Amino acid sequence: MASAFEKFNREFWKLMKIDYPFVARIDKAFCASIPKASSYYIGISPIYRKHVTISFQHSSKAWEIGELTINVNIGAEYGSVAADNFNRWRERFKTFGDGFYRLAAAAEVGDKWWCLCPRNPSYSSRDNSRGNYWEPSSYDSEDVVLQECVVAVAAFLDEHLFKKGGFGRHAPQGA
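Structure (tokenized):
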């Protein structure tokens, strides 16, 4: 039986093939943080000339089942992973410097998590210091949750990564 995270990745890939045909699956894991099953190659940025890969990270905490966030790896070479991803990362992301970034934090919109399952009420009332959370209009239908989440994630990627890197409809004229 597939997890909500696995189902999300299947639905995300379906949307990418139709609406964002420049996105591709990766053929092997780059490292533990960029696994094959939940990572996608965006391509070479037409603006910065760097390879860009995203990976979805699910929370490893038992009380955060179904929560995921987006990481982005930028490198001069395909498959390279920067060892130093903590030194001046916000400044480096602004110019697509080589590195491994939490996309929402690097884009300066705070840490962001998408919730495929209802959040645990005993923890959701705590301080949301980890970031902000996206939740669907209702958890009553798994299909609705997946569809709304995939659309929300795609819109976030479009606004904070595809536009910045000049991917797809954001490509510079003549690129």
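The two ends are 43 Å apart (CA to CA). The beta strands are 24-25, 39-44, 51-58, 67-75, 99-102, 112-115, 132-134.
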